[in-house]
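2 proteins. here.
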Amino acid sequence: MSVKLRSPVICTGRCQTVPQPYCIKCSHAIFGGRKNGVTWQFEPMSGFRFYKRGKEVELDANSPIWGDVEAWHKRLVKNYEVQS
């Protein structure tokens, strides 16, 4: 089964082409998403960062978009697992 990998939004590595199956574990990859005015970045080595209006904010499990963030992350990881 072939699943299209989600490319990192930012890759500071020397990879010639992205996405690669190892991107999900790479310290050079930064993935991103957005929902209801909240933007997030996910770095495989350090986790999530959330931004609202350009400023970093805390987002806890009670946030209305937390379910969307979890679903996004689950799809991201699953897509990479299929390719590994």
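next one coming up
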Amino acid sequence: MKATVALILAFIVFLVLGSIATLLFGPVDIYIALSLLVIIPFALLSVACWKRKRWGFAGSGILALILVVATPAALGPETTPLLLWETTVSTLLLVLIALEGFKAYLESKKT
């Protein structure tokens, strides 16, 4: 259950660092706006997971799966290498969050 919180916090840090890297090295694109929209729900879900709320684990799994499906839509015909790297790593983190969130939800249901 703590792994879910750790993965969510790692994802938030990754989004913040990716936004900073985009501002410094890449053209400003939709990545920053989408990162801000994603950080807020994941921050709220991480607090709920920290307090061991079952809906927090389920919500993090569902939100992560939605974002895994929506992430390739961010890639356009002129994708920068930085954006490609960011979407690849974010997809990997989101899959891990989804798996860990659903696993923690099922474990909390047993107890």
